[in-house]
């Protein structure tokens, strides 16, 4: 499996656990088009600042975002390479399922159609 080499199972689990939550996907989406600070992100959600910080920390541990200090604020930006890695993995799994569905079509569909 070429796509999965050099990626530990725990690293993959961390990546997809981070993407499993809607708030984290929204934070990631926002950091694709802007470089928000954590406090600006927190103002967008109906949850505590600490809860948003925890979501950001999960994304950071998964390698999907980076934080950098700018004065007193922590700016959030997307790690495009890691996000591309997730996309490649999903494409790989999709190709497996497409092949399997095509094989199933070969078995189930009448010949000559």
Keywords:
two-stranded antiparallel ribbon; single chain; 5 helices; 113 residues; 63% helix
Q: Can you describe this structure in just a few lines?
A:
The chain is mostly helical and 113 residues long. It has helices at 9-19, 22-33, 38-43, 49-61, 80-108; strands spanning 65-70, 73-78.
SSE order and pairing:
Layout (H helix, E strand, L loop, with lengths): L8 H11 L2 H12 L4 H6 L5 H13 L3 E6 L2 E6 L1 H29 L5
Antiparallel strand pairs: 1-2
Helix pairs in contact: 1-4, 2-4
Overview of the molecule:
The protein is mainly alpha-helical and 113 residues long. It is 63% helix and 11% strand. The chain has 5 helices and 2 strands. Strands 1-2 form a two-stranded antiparallel sheet. A hairpin with a 2-residue loop joins strand 1 and strand 2. Helix 1 runs antiparallel to helix 4 and helix 2 crosses helix 4. The chain starts with 8 loop residues before the first helix and ends in a 5-residue tail after the last helix.
Rg calculated over all Cα atoms: 19 Å
Order of helices and strands: HHHHEEH
- Tally of DSSP helical segments: 5
How much helix, percentage-wise, in residues? 55-70%
Describe the largest sheet.
2 strands, antiparallel
End-to-end Cα distance, whole Å, is 34 Å
The rough form would be described as elongated
Could you give the order of strands across the largest sheet? Answer: 1-2
What is the overall pLDDT average?
89
Query: What is the tally of beta strands?
Result: 2
β-strand percent reads: 5-15%
Uncertain ranges = none
């Amino acid at each position: 499996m070429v796509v999965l080499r050099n990626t530990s199972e725990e690293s993959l689990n961390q990546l997809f656990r981070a993407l499993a939550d809607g708030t984290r996907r929204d934070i990631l989406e926002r950091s694709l088009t802007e470089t928000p600070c954590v406090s600006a992100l927190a103002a967008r959600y109906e949850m505590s600042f600490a809860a948003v910080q925890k979501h950001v920390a999960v994304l950071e541990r998964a390698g999907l975002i980076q934080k950098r200090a700018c004065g007193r604020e922590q700016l959030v930006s997307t790690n495009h390479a890691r996000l591309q890695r997730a996309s490649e993995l999903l494409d790989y799994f999709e190709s497996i399922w497409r092949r399997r569905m095509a094989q199933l079509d070969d078995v189930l569909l009448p010949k000559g159609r």
